[in-house]
From TrEMBL:
InterPro entries: Chorismate--pyruvate_lyase (IPR007440), Chorismate_lyase_/UTRA_dom_sf (IPR028978). The gene is ubiC. HAMAP family: UbiC. It comes from Pelomonas candidula. It catalyses: chorismate = 4-hydroxybenzoate + pyruvate. This is Probable chorismate pyruvate-lyase. The keyword Manganese does not apply.
Length: 179
């Protein structure tokens, strides 16, 4: 497995539309492993992306997306807790279904520009994702797993932030093409 760089993951970091649907085309079986869904305090980056006040609670959903059993993406979505009784209430009952079922089948939902970002190897988000990855897969998160993309989805004035962290196993794979 090569080093996952911004260039080697460029197609994935910029791919429009549903990441889940693109991943599903890489293999025979696509699955969502829900790691955690809970109420938590805002993180600074999420608060800034959602334009929220310094205090409050968010509903966080963290998952691993797999193709044919291979973990390829760690993802975290966050929405203000109040929005889960309004425009984003369907998030509560999503379970192991992809978030894409909510985001891409409703014309009222609009997505911000994708923002690629390299995580700090020792930053809070990377350490948190690595702990969850280890617990869920039984293997350490690859050291090269540093590139993510972020976007914000808006519906009826309420915003949902999605962050997707890419495994180096996607290096060289074209979005939407079978292996």
């Amino acid at each position: 497995m090569g080093i996952a760089t911004r260039d080697s993951l460029r197609d994935w970091l910029r791919a429009p539309g549903s990441l889940s649907r693109r991943l599903a085309r890489l293999g025979e079986r696509f699955s969502v492993q829900v790691l955690r869904q809970r109420v938590a305090p805002f993180r600074a980056l999420e608060r800034a992306a959602l334009g929220l006040p310094p205090r409050g609670l968010t509903v966080v959903r963290e998952v691993i997306l797999r193709v044919d059993g291979e973990p390829l993406i760690w993802a975290r979505s966050a929405v203000h807790q109040r929005a889960t009784i309004g425009p984003w209430r369907a998030l509560k009952g999503l379970g192991a279904k992809p978030l894409a079922h909510l985001l891409y089948d409703d014309y009222r939902i609009h997505r911000s520009e994708l923002q690629p970002r390299r995580l700090s190897r020792h930053g809070h988000t990377r350490r948190h994702a690595a702990r969850q990855w280890q617990a869920a897969t039984g293997a350490a998160m690859p050291a090269q797993m540093l590139w993510s993309r972020n976007s914000v989805f808006s519906r009826s004035g309420a915003q949902l932030r999605v962050m997707e962290l890419f495994a180096p196993g996607l290096t060289g794979q074209r979005p939407g093409r079978r292996r």
